[in-house]
Amino acid sequence: MTIRVLLVDDQPLLRTGFRLILQSEPDIEVVGEAGDGEVALSQVRALRPDVVLMDIRMPRMDGVEATRRLAEFDDPPRVLVLTTYDLDEYVVDSLRAGASGFLLKDVPAEDLVDAVRVVHRGEAVVAPRVTRRLLDRFARLLPAPRTDDAPLPELTDREHQVLLLMARGLSNAEIAGQLVLSETTVKTHVSNVLMKLGLRDRVQAVVLAYERGIVKPSTS
Amino acid sequence: MTIRVLLVDDQPLLRTGFRLILQSEPDIEVVGEAGDGEVALSQVRALRPDVVLMDIRMPRMDGVEATRRLAEFDDPPRVLVLTTYDLDEYVVDSLRAGASGFLLKDVPAEDLVDAVRVVHRGEAVVAPRVTRRLLDRFARLLPAPRTDDAPLPELTDREHQVLLLMARGLSNAEIAGQLVLSETTVKTHVSNVLMKLGLRDRVQAVVLAYERGIVKPSTS
DNA sequence: GGCGGCCTCCTCCTGGAGGAGGAGGTCGCC
DNA sequence: GGCGACCTCCTCCTCCAGGAGGAGGCCGCC
């Protein structure tokens, strides 16, 4: 089983270069090429590659848009984005579009073939220079610097457990059902949680749970 | 100029293994070891390493906390986190703490020394298996372009306003005070919000507000 | 003008939430 | 054994939340 690769770049010379590199690997097969995003889409439909090496800047349809369209395919190929510059927005947009990796075009041959194998097995790879920027940006997006001035060590396991269920919008009766307890017991735990955290009601408990990162959004 | 490395792991055997791998590289020098986070901090002060290989799970002070403290140093070392499992929370917490890389402990020797060089020159590296999860998570955090376009189109301005205050933990009476309304009116708006969104009570409204990104956990 | 959407406020009513104040149980520690 | 922390489950009580079913006023549109 070879890894079927499609090359997408508007510069024929670059495609040739990549083809030479990849073709010399026994487990990789370059099944086609495309010079813009639209051709890439039809090539993917026709050739069913496993991995697409995708340039960002291309005429007609750019790599980001093409990646986005590919993500809507049944059994879509993995997309490995290749950019000349490590520009943040390209990286972020591609990622949002569903790419599995980002490399710079000056990538060493060995790293390129490694990356093809990595994305093919469902993992992801990002060029180190890009990773740094990506992590910086990621860190800024994260729930916050977490000033752990007032942690919540005072909560017992049971109380913490109840808090988590509360934070998912469950009523006392539902929590009781979930934990196989009487509603009375749940009310006791809830009361203790509120008292310990200095809160008025379960609504504030939910707010605190999200603000402190005890529960995090986007689980759904 | 060699790269000065400090090994931090509570398992001496692992430290020895890493030491052997790194020591064989001409441009890398292992200047010290530490068995927990606290020792690591004093070692960094004394030895001024360029790169710290940091385990996550350790007694006394774990790797995440140690990384966070290191970030507050003048001219802090780069931290390369090593963990046994590719657990999401560790990754995210480490990055937030300021780590420059994240590797699994079963990393091939060659990749390890590469990673040390990469973080030393200010770039970053993440294990492919972890990268996939990280990117998925990152993608969810990003300002979603289309799914967020019409999350709650049916809410009127007033209802949306009430929802925001509800999501901050305010009671009906407090919302009424805030918006200069009667409590009755607020209750009407709340009821409408719940009905339109198909929710049971304000607790679920708060959960939805956070999950849909209508309100976001903030630094404050 | 009439109609519909939105905002405002009302009363009556039920149910759940949460506090007060218990009690019995297990477990680990001194 | 005694003590304290934790988990479990009571009862009585109050109060807010939320539904049902209104009503009047404003505004834009046909």
UniProtKB/TrEMBL annotation, chains A, B:
<keyword id="KW-0805">Transcription regulation</keyword>
<dbReference type="InterPro" id="IPR016032">
    <property type="entry name" value="Sig_transdc_resp-reg_C-effctor"/>
</dbReference>
<keyword id="KW-0597">Phosphoprotein</keyword>
<dbReference type="Pfam" id="PF00196">
    <property type="entry name" value="GerE"/>
</dbReference>
<dbReference type="InterPro" id="IPR058245">
    <property type="entry name" value="NreC/VraR/RcsB-like_REC"/>
</dbReference>
<protein>
    <submittedName>
        <fullName>Two component transcriptional regulator, LuxR family</fullName>
    </submittedName>
</protein>
<feature type="modified residue" description="4-aspartylphosphate">
    <location>
        <position position="55"/>
    </location>
</feature>
<dbReference type="Pfam" id="PF00072">
    <property type="entry name" value="Response_reg"/>
</dbReference>
<dbReference type="InterPro" id="IPR000792">
    <property type="entry name" value="Tscrpt_reg_LuxR_C"/>
</dbReference>
<keyword id="KW-0238">DNA-binding</keyword>
<dbReference type="InterPro" id="IPR039420">
    <property type="entry name" value="WalR-like"/>
</dbReference>
<keyword id="KW-0804">Transcription</keyword>
<dbReference type="InterPro" id="IPR011006">
    <property type="entry name" value="CheY-like_superfamily"/>
</dbReference>
<feature type="domain" description="Response regulatory">
    <location>
        <begin position="4"/>
        <end position="120"/>
    </location>
</feature>
<feature type="domain" description="HTH luxR-type">
    <location>
        <begin position="148"/>
        <end position="213"/>
    </location>
</feature>
<dbReference type="GO" id="GO:0000160">
    <property type="term" value="P:phosphorelay signal transduction system"/>
</dbReference>
<dbReference type="GO" id="GO:0003677">
    <property type="term" value="F:DNA binding"/>
</dbReference>
<dbReference type="InterPro" id="IPR001789">
    <property type="entry name" value="Sig_transdc_resp-reg_receiver"/>
</dbReference>
<dbReference type="GO" id="GO:0006355">
    <property type="term" value="P:regulation of DNA-templated transcription"/>
</dbReference>
